[in-house]
Write a structure and sequence with these properties.
This protein has 14 helices and no strands. The protein has about 425 residues and is an all-alpha fold.
Length: about 425
Amino acid sequence: MNSKTDTPTALTGTFIQEPKAVWKAAPESIAACLMLGVVTTAGIFYANILPVLVGGLVESLDYSKQQAGNVTAANIYGAALGSLIAVLLVKRLPWKRTVVGALLPLLALDLLSPSIVAAEGLITLRFIAGVFGGLITGTGLAVMARTGKPEISYACMLLIQFGLGGVGLYALPSLTLIYGTKALFFTLAIFDITALLFIVFLAAYPAKNNKNSDSNLDSNANRQRAKTALFPIGLMLVAVFLFQGANNGVYAFVERLGMEVGLSVQWVSLSLGIGAWVGVPGALLVIGIANRYGRLLPLLAAGGLMVAGWWLLHYPAIPQAFLWSGALVSFAWAFIIPYLFGILAELDPSGQMAAYGGLFSKLGLASGPLVGGVVLLDNDYSLLVNLGIAGLVTSLCLAFIPVLQLDRKRTSST
């Protein structure tokens, strides 16, 4: 379906001249959501193969777990900075120009990364790559908030991340043993190229006017509503930070845990791959039910599954426990995140708060492995798992307050 408003698109200029008659996916179609999910994921796909990335750095470059954790943390802290830049630019620049302008240098940095051996150099390089990746992901999250059904858009993104992440988690450990870190970073480069191709077929998604925008804040009532909205938004941002930090702090070292308790590399990679693939039905379930049953009950159920999944890691030497842990966690993770970002999108339809959510998400994703590396100085995986569970429960408790408000509002309007 062609859109007259998208010709010519924001890609014209210094980067890409887009054909005027290029086909466009209908803005709210599943095809558009999936392509937008690929573009958004390109900035942070390394997070979906994080256990393999940490393991690859340890095995191929002889890094310590702390050094490997620092590399991944630097990458994601850079992404947090990029997400902050996205917050500042998302209302000012056409989103396609921003994303393409970040994808090109990210591709170059991903191709350059395998040639860097020293930990300090790789930390610096991946921080810079993270800035460009965060700009891509933060912009993509903001664009998703502009669609008519943001939860479905976010679920499609998780569908991509867990589906392709499962392939990476299954295949990359063996490839890394043969080709070293080239297998890891060249995989990221392939994702960058795919995103560049897909972006041509996406619509402009102009920013929506926020009901509480400056032009509408003339009355005291509107000003008060805007101030009141800051409280649930603040709670959601902290909830996103804790949720991502608690889970990624454990997830980053799962591969190491499996190897150190004596599981075979084949079983560990199979368990991680299957676990990630189980996230696909989690994302599909969000697409299927959306807000049909509100948000509170689905989040409670998924949160319980996630706690059970992490708890199983207290018994990692049991192969079936290791396998089921990954499956339960991935299913719940892919289910919960679209709801958290969907809540932010409902609180702010312009998409700016979703971009802030991307920032807090990256800060959490980076802080988790950083804290995890410190905890594991004594190789205490039980403490790491318990801290992860505590952070997860706290994050969901914070999210329930705005969830209850929105569910009550939904009930009263029907």
